[in-house]
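Q: Here's a chain of 379 amino acids. Please give me its 3D structure as C-alpha cells.
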Amino acid sequence: MQMRKLFFLFLLALTIGCSGQETEPRTKKRFMGFRGLNDTIDDQKKGVFVLPLLYYTPDTRWAAGAAGVYYFKIKGKNDDEKETRVSNVQFLSDYTQNKQLDVWGQWNIFTRNENYLFKGELRFRNFPDRFYGIGNTSIKKNEERYEYNLFSFKTLALKKVYKSVFVGVDYHFEQEYDFKYTDGGALQTGTITGYDGGIQSAIGLVGIYDSRDNVINTFKGSLFEVSSYFYLPQLGSTFNFTFLNLTHQKFWQVKKKHIIAIQTKARYGFGQVPFLDMSQAGNDDMLRGYPKNRFRDVNFLGTQIEYRFPLFWRLGGVTFAGAGDVFAKHKDLSLNTVKYSIGAGLRFVVNPAERLNIRLDYGYGREGGYFYFIVAEAF
C-alpha cells in the first residue's frame, strides 16, 4: 500500500501546474520531450520557477510546502566576455508528517565574468528528531525522541583567482535552543556534548575548483572543495572546535544525456564537537538508504557513484551505489560496520531550461530500504 501511494503521488506531481515565468524570449528551438531537450540553458536567460512541494524522506516522512527559484545569468560587458553560469536564489518552506517546520533560503550568485561568487543560507527549523547514540555501532532499539529550535545564517564570499578556481572566507552563525527530551534518555542525563544547545559561531576558509556546466544538474565538469571552519569562543561560540571538509565531484557525459557521476566526501572534526554538529551517515544526498539521524560521530568518510540516463519524454532513470561511515578514529572503521547503499530511481524534468528534476529514489542499506521523493539531484 505504501508503494502504491508513493507511486500515485509521484504521478500526481508530474501533472501539477507549476508556474514558470520567462523574462526573456526563447529562441526558435522547441522542447518536444526529454530526448529533445536542449543540453544547455542558453535558451532562457532568467526566470522564476515556483513549485508546490511534496516530498518523502525517512527523517521527515511526508512533507508539503512550497519552493521557489529565481535564476539568472549576467552578460559580459563586451563580446569577448562570456555570460556567467546560472545564478539562483532559492526559497523553501515546508511542514512534515513528523511535525517538523523548516523555512529556508539560499543563494548562489556569480558576478560579471564570474570574478566573484557569493553563496549563503538563512534558515529556521523547529525539528522533532530521533537520537540513537554516538558511533557507527549504535543500536536502533535505543531510539529516543527530542526536539529543538534552530536559527542558522551562513555567508560566503569567493574571489576567482584563476579559471574555475575560487578562494574566500565564510562566516557561520547557528543557535540551537528550547530542547525537549525523552524522559530517562541519554540526552537528558547531560553527558552528551551540546545536549542543551548553544551558539556556534565560526570563520571558515574555503577553496573551490568548479568547472561544472550547470550547478543544479551537471552533465560534465568537476567540483573540488576544501574548507576549514573554526568555532571559537572569541567569536561567541559556546564550544571550541574545528572542522575540515573535503568534497570532490566528477561528471562525465558518456553519450547524450547519459551521465556518470562520482562524489566523495570527507569531514573531520577536532575539539569539543556538539552532537548536533557531528557528522552523520545517511541522507537524501549521500548514502541513501539510511535516515540522516541514524548514525553520527565526529568524522565521516564516504563515496558514491551514480549513472543517469534518459527513458522517454521527460522521464529519466538513475542507478547508484555507495559506501561510507562515521567514526571517532580511523581504527573504528571496519568492513563489518561500513554502511553500504545501493538503489535506483526515476527523474522527471519540471524545468528544462534549468534542468530542474523531481526525483524518486529507493536506497537500500544494512537496515533495510527507504524511499526519497524530493526536488533536485542528490549531487
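Q: Can you summarize the key feature?
A: Residues 2-14 form the longest helix (13 residues).
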